[in-house]
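Session log. Operator J.P. requested a structure for one protein chain; no other inputs attached. Running the standard single-chain path with token output.
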Amino acid sequence: MASEFTASGTVKNLRSHNESYGTDIDWVTIEGFTSAGSCGKRSDGSVRIAIKNDEYGKRQFSTLLAAKMSNVAVTVTVDDSYKSASNTCYLAYVTL
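Structure written below.
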């Protein structure tokens, strides 16, 4: 059964890839976010959250970048039924 998971914390990692890696593969991790149902994790145990390569994802990425640069906490939500082929849950929304 799919569920939403929400966490608050500072942006730990924010990664952007060039087009040779494909689409929808930019991702973020949030300090302390280590459990989100069936969402995939990084080797350090943090939940890796995919960011879509669309207009919404661009706004989300900008919000996350601003938070990272200013060391301000964000709240993120993922739904473990909304995942990429690599088992990475997509970011549903971000609040700054």
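Operator note: The chain has a mean pLDDT of 93.
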